[in-house]
Amino acid sequence: MENSLMFIDGAWVEPDSGEYFPVLNPATGELAGSVPNGGYAEAVRAIDAAHLAFADWSAHTAEERAEYLMTWHRLIMQNLDDLAATLTMEQGKPLAEAKGEIGYGAKFIEWYAEEAKRVYGSTIPASARNKRVVVLRQPVGVVAAITPWNFPAAMVTRKIAPALAAGCTVILKPAEQTPLTSIKLYQLLEQAGLPKGVANLVTGDAVLIGKAFMEDSRVRKITFTGSTEVGKLLMKQAADTMKNISLELGGHAPFLVFDDADVESAVKGVIASKFRNAGQTCICANRILVQEGAADRFIALFKKEASALKVGNGLEEGTVIGPLIDKAGYEKVSLHVQDALAKGAHLVCGGEGFHQSDEEDAGYFYQPTVLSGVTADMRIMQEETFGPVAPVVTFKTEEEGIRMANDSVYGLAAYVFTESLSRAIRVGEKLEFGIVGINDGAPSTAQAPFGGFKESGLGREGGKEGIESFLETKFMSIGI
Ligand code: ADP
């Protein structure tokens, strides 16, 4: 298997150190690829290239930039099967889900190719007869994007596509667990004929590469998806050069099921939300709050549906729940379940995991697990589990349900299941979350703004808000 390379200034390059790090298949522990162990110097060279390329790229017309994006989109769709296989191999999610992610990720490219043409400024009536007031929107400049392992394709396109559409140049640092999909995406960008230096890719030491991004005043924007802990660190570091910053961080999504819900549809919704990517998404339902009158019916049907989900290697037919990303991920899930059971929760189904690889850090699986009788003092109710475990808690009144849902430092996604229109609106408006799925367990889509309140982050990705964050506003006051 050949080593992968980094993409800097339009060329595929080796790391200065000559060192590569392994990417393991989390289902089997097999080697999925080897990727350059780059660091500070390579990141600076990528910034040099992006900085140099900015003048020409930002001077392209929106239509010209859109044309490159549409070509990239077409190439991705033509290579969908190959990209999805790479994604499953390095990340573990079932192949059907990986195909879904490639298609979903590609949608951002298509949508922002279209949106590039609608970056409108404005004119404002002046207060003097001899003046004109004009407002321009211009690209912020060089963008550094740092992405996580749970969506190796979509988190890349959701950042790169609006940045390129706006006229910015970019440097991507993908997660060390899942760089292979992003490398393939970049090969297709190169094939699309993107001018050199416009999009660069560095892999390796996150701290050193991050330091290069954060120290360099030429980097005008950081766009990050990952843990709240690293997000806070980047926000502090960004202060020194006053960078623009977008952060999409952790979540602890409440999933509210009211007495008047269609229980079948609520169970379908919770299965879609909870078990996608083996529970490893920041909008996965993490606290299932069920009103007392619906609890027995909901738990019985949830148990039946959840226990039927097949756990295994994502490349095998019929798998719905793939492996956890690594040993640390597995240990956190086990710990949350053990802690809940020790504090009096009831095991409805699942509750066990297994390890099937010679590799210490791969091959970890966990059964779909439902717990009932969960209380607020259990760790699972306070921290993001990032695994296929669903804690069910009951509540009495609408007010109590809303209060429990909002009782979190996080505010990314929330879900509400009810057949009452007025309740849906009432509750939806009171939830302190950036995304509310009403009778919908899968709310993400390219044309809508995705992002969180409170400690779940800053800024939005997707929709018109998603390109705004790559634009500066310039007010020109013109004397005539
Ligand atoms: P997770 O816990 O999901 O792996 P992280 O926040 O640790 O989330 O990682 C998300 C991304 O942030 C990854 O690409 C990772 O390499 C990167 N990262 C981690 N630490 C730093 C850091 N100190 N500076 C810059 N990037 C970092």
From TrEMBL:
Pfam families: Aldedh (PF00171). Coiled coil: none annotated. The keyword Ion transport does not apply. Keywords: Oxidoreductase. It comes from the Bacteria. CDD domains: ALDH_F5_SSADH_GabD. SUPFAM superfamilies: ALDH-like. GO terms for biological process: gamma-aminobutyric acid catabolic process. One of its GO terms (molecular function) is succinate-semialdehyde dehydrogenase (NAD+) activity. The keyword Oxidoreductase applies. Belongs to the aldehyde dehydrogenase family. This is Succinate-semialdehyde dehydrogenase. It comes from Paenibacillus naphthalenovorans.
